[in-house]
Structures are given as C-alpha cells and as structure tokens.
Design goal:
By secondary structure, this protein is an alpha/beta fold.
C-alpha cells in the first residue's frame, strides 16, 4: 500500500519548488508567472525508514524495499476555479484522485516573487482555496442528487449521506473534524474534496524556518484542528542538491533536525492514521503501509490476496525485540516470537511472517 498526496495552492506559492525538492527531481517546471503548471507533475519517492535499514542489516537481506509516497504537483488554483477560471475544472479533477491534500501557503514576503494578490495573507489564500473546493463539491453533489439524473442513486444510505454532506457544505460547516466519524466506504463513494484529509504547509524564508513568523502564527491559531507544519522550499531545494553527509551538515548548521520530507511523511501518517509493518528474510526486507487497527489477515492481504484467503497464523516479533535479540533466530531462542491468530491487531513496527494454506 502506498498513498498519494496532492500539493495545492495559489500560483507562485512555491509548489513546484517544493515538489522538486521532495522528489529530488527536475520534473516540475519552475517559473515566475501564474499557470506555469497545467498538467500535474507526479513524483514517486521512497519513504526514508531507519527501522527498515536496521532490519535489513540484521537479516543480511540482499535487497531493501521501502514503501512509497506519491506527490502530485497540481497547478495553481485561483478564485473562480470551480466555475472553470484558470483551467480550474481540470485542476480540481486532479485533486479528486489523491488520498490527502497538502495545502501549501505563502508565508514569506519577497517583492521579487510575483504574488497573485497584492499582499501576503495565508488565511485569505486558504479560505479562497477551501471555497473553490466546497463550491466544486456542491455542484457535483447537486448533479448526483438531481431527480432527473439518469444515473440516480438507488441506495438510500448513500443518498442520505450525500444529502447530509451537501447540507453541511451549504451551511458553511468545516467537515474536517467529522471525517473520522463517517464510514470510509461512504466517504469513498461521495468522492468529495471537502472530505479528504488535509495538511497545511507554511512556506517560509530561510530565516524563519526555526521560529516561524506572524503569518505562520495566524495559520496555527485559525486551524487548530488541522496538522500545520513549516518548511522552507528554498532550504529543501538546497538539501535535495546535496549528498547525505553534506545535507546532514547543512541541516546542523541551520539548527534543524529533519527535512521537510521527513516532517511531511510523519504528519501524513498521523493524518491518515497509518502504521508500518515489516517482512524480512535473506532475500529481502520490506516495509508495508497499513491503516491503524488492521488485523493480521487484512495485513496479509496487502502482500497477496491468497495470504488472507488461506490465513492460518502470523509469526510476530516486535521491532524492539528484533533489534535487541539480533533478529529472528535470537527472538526464537529467547521466547520473543509470538504466534497470533485472525483477531490480532498489527502494531506499528511488527515484523511478520504469515502462515497460510490454499
């Protein structure tokens, strides 16, 4: 399992620079004018995982396979995007395909970088983006709920859910806090932008990366129920151009402990309620992304559907025990390998081996 993050924001807030830095690529065109990005740029990145590195070393695996995260650099939205302004309808369709929305907002003052508005105001920018997403959702829901629609919804539960979402949106309610209370299948069916998990990323100048600034403070005060992180797209660009050792020295000189990519991945896992488990052997060590509270058979299905169909038991070693007792053999000898059944809820960091029979 991997997940896809869509980076959205107004033109010239640093989306393409951030995308290139996060993906260590030059796939995204960068220029100082609106609508520089029209078609979305897609970058697939290995998720850095120090636990997997240690597991691979202890198992002496021939190959290490990290989980992946996909970043989609979606073109800049403008006021009226829901009505097609600035190619808005096309941009909004790209957002519907991602698992999570990353709102990148400009929190820096620089007269040399063109701004679509006269002043820097991240709250205004966020409100503008949210308004366009809401209007797009309402238009979509109106069409689906229209009695004249040839493809009208027959399932009453689904129809009632769409009606509830439409009512909440029309009343100006923020649905972010309600996401976890809705059934995931209904959320997927609704396919609304307003129900997608989101993170707000404040793009600041290099001088403000440690303490932030008044723009960042305003965002954090307003969006207390949303994960907000601060990065500097320019710093991320410089880190991406350095080797690992030089990048670490550069971060130390700046006084930062982790890159923007590390921050974003950590907060993404929290926002999407994700965990990681591992499989390990002589051939390969691999990480697998699962939802929290996933049972062993469902975790096995991610590897192959037959693993769930024929599930018998799961051999389980905690990450801590795997490290402390130097791998699987040491854990067996010291009674740290457990046999768990179908009801076992996989914990973050578990090393698993599935027994199955088809």
């Amino acid at each position: 399992m991997s997940f896809k993050c869509g980076i959205v924001g107004l033109p010239n807030v640093g989306k393409s620079t951030t995308f290139n830095a996060l993906t260590k690529s030059r796939n995204a065109q960068i220029a100082n004018f609106p609508f520089c990005t029209i078609d979305p740029n897609i970058g697939i990145v290995e998720i850095p995982d120090h636990r997997l590195e240690k597991i691979t070393k202890i198992s002496n695996s021939k190959e290490r396979i990290n989980s992946l995260i996909t970043f989609v650099d979606i073109a800049g939205l403008v006021k009226g995007a829901s009505k097609g302004e600035g190619l808005g309808n096309k941009f909004l369709s790209h957002i519907r395909e991602v698992d999570m929305i990353v709102h990148l907002v400009r929190c820096f003052d620089d007269p040399n970088i063109q701004n679509v508005n006269n002043t820097v105001d991240p709250l205004r920018d966020l409100e503008m983006i949210e308004t366009e997403l809401t209007l797009s959702d309402m238009e979509s829901l109106e069409k689906r709920l229209d009695k004249k629609n040839k493809n009208k919804i027959s399932n009453s539960e689904e129809k009632n859910f769409l009606s509830e979402i439409y009512k909440n949106l029309s009343e100006g309610l923020d649905l972010t806090s309600k996401i976890n209370s809705y059934d995931k299948k209904l959320i997927t069916f609704a396919s609304t932008l307003s129900l997608k998990p989101k993170i707000i990323v404040c793009n600041v100048n290099e001088d403000d990366i440690l303490k932030g600034n008044s723009h960042v403070d305003k965002v954090k005060n307003k969006y207390k129920n949303t994960n907000v992180i601060t990065i500097s797209a320019d710093i991320e660009r410089q880190i991406s151009e350095l080797g690992n050792e030089d990048a670490n020295d550069f971060k130390k000189d700046l006084g930062i402990n982790e890159s923007g990519l590390d921050k974003l991945i950590k907060v993404s896992f929290d926002t999407l309620n994700l965990n990681t488990y591992y499989t390990s052997g002589a051939k390969e060590s691999k990480s697998w992304i699962i939802n929290k509270n996933t049972t062993a058979p469902d975790a096995a299905e991610i590897i192959h559907s037959d693993f769930k169909k024929g599930f018998i038991k799961a051999e389980v070693i905690s990450y801590k025990d795997f490290i402390n007792f130097n791998g699987e053999n040491g854990c067996r000898e010291n009674g740290k390998l457990r046999i768990e059944g179908k009801d076992y809820v996989v914990r973050d960091g578990d090393i698993l081996h599935f027994r199955f029979n088809i």
